[in-house]
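Tutorial, part two.
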Amino acid sequence: MSKIKLLVAVPAVLVLGVLLVLGYLHANQPFRDFAVSEKKIVKDKWVETADYKLKVLDVKEEKQKEAGELAWSNLIVSVLIENKKHQNIRSQLLGETFLSSEKASSGQALDILDEDGHSAVLKFGKAIPCQIVFETPSRDIADLTKVWMTVMQEKGHQYTKYVYHF
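Running the prediction step on this input gives:
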């Protein structure tokens, strides 16, 4: 009876030991570096990302409410967007687009609207005129030279940051 227990216990202990060592080695792998490259977006010129093409046409500010220091504005960036995927990339683009400043992120894109003011449908292979709307405190965009639009795309461990300076 003790030989059977020994034949079962020894391989079980060996397997558990190997799993413990492999788990320890896996948990202590060196951290993978993420590479970030930066590309500039120039007004009236196409910039091509992995999933779409983007051209900035115009920028304007619409005051929303005046409440002293807490005044809010909509910063509206008019763009042409050409979808290169066979799916609607609107939500992806909303998640990747935000305003930045020297201090911090000033706000994420609220919506992407078509010419009629409805949520834009970005169809494959067509350049659609759209407006990217950012709601942000007016004090953050009082001087547009200190604010810029950033589109951040990630593919694996490679990030590409597309920057448009107003």
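The mean pLDDT is 82. In part three we will examine how such features are distributed along the chain.
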